[in-house]
Structure prediction request, 144 residues.
Amino acid sequence: MHCIPSTQHLQIDLTGKHAKIVGADPRPSLQEQADAMQPKTLGLVLVTAASKAEAEAIAQHLVTHHLAACVSLQPIHSIYSWQDTLHHDDEWQLVIKTDLGLFADIEAAVRAIHSYDVPEIVGIPFTVGSQDYLTWVASQTQAP
Prediction:
C-alpha cells in the first residue's frame, strides 16, 4: 500500500512584505490525483426483489445517484429455503452494471429500500467486455 500525503495546495502572495494565503489552488490534491488513477473494477451486482415496484425503486435510486450505469429488471421464479420452510416465489432480478468499488454504497442503498431481512446482494467482476461498453459503465458511476 502506498501512502500519499493529503495536502491541499494553496496560492500564496509573496509580493508584499509578508506572505499571505490568497486562496486554494484549483489543482487536485495528491490524494485526488491518486484516486483518479486507480482503475475501476467493473462488474455486476445481483439483487432479487419481492415486486416490480420495489425493483424499480432500487434501480432508479442506484442510477440517479450514479451508483449504477444501468439496471436490467427481469421477472424470475425462485425456489429457496427460508426459516426451515421451502418457498416457491415470483421475484424480480436486478442486474446492476457498476463499479464494484461502490459495493458498500450500493449495499447500503439496497438495504434502505429493500423489504427482505436478508436480501441477495452479490458482486461479480467482469473478466472481459466490449471496451466501449466498459468505458461507458465507468463514466456513469462515481462515489457519492
